[in-house]
Amino acid sequence: MPLHFLLDEHVLARPGETVVLTGAEAHHAAAVRRVRVGEEVTVGDGHGAWLTGTCEAVAPREVVVRIDERTDVPPPAPRLVLVQALAKGDRDELAVQAATELGVDEIVPWQAARSVSRWDTAKAAKGRARWAAIVREAAKQAHRAWVPEVGELSTTKQLVQRVGQGAASVFVLEPTGEERLTAVALDATDPRDIVLVVGPEGGVAPEELQAFADAGAHLVRLGETVLRTSTAGPAALAIVNAALGRW
Hints:
Distance between the termini: 19 Å
Number of strands: 13
Helix content: 25-40%
Order of helices and strands: EEHEEEEHEHEEHEEEHEH
């Protein structure tokens, strides 16, 4: 499989034209991955453009790729959204990375009642940028045509309001839930987002569970064991991908 690289802007180029990797991406291609003139690579813009081309010039500051083929990949439908509660250490970041590899389309950081990690205004901007960087690299590694977006930090109240709008099918991962996620009938033709809500280390607080349920969310469990916050979301995404026929 050819090496894959990402541009930071929308690509309009067509076969026969060239695109240029610069900055960190050019350095990564030339100095780290050591691409050579004449080598086939793929290049994306994270917004559906998928280019296959041949390296014409390679230098640490600039890599020129002549486009041989272009495919415009439509955005996924339904979209898969992971609401990931902030967690201590790097557990939330591990969840973000794995979820991106497994096909999530949007990640929403959540300041849950039991989140040990707390983001103030400054930390929220820095944390969101950190998550976006993790998402970008994971999407590139997974050869994804669309790079997931990282939403604004949300409170429980904001999430409950989103649930109440009815524009998505929302599933809160809760070990005490009466229904298994594997038993949920998911319809691949339903355009509504599928939202998976994952709590922090201490789980989702009872008052939050009640608020989500009252707004129309489904409380579902993954099995008989309790998963870490870093693994629950990716595990649920695997189930959803299989149910939708994507795997």
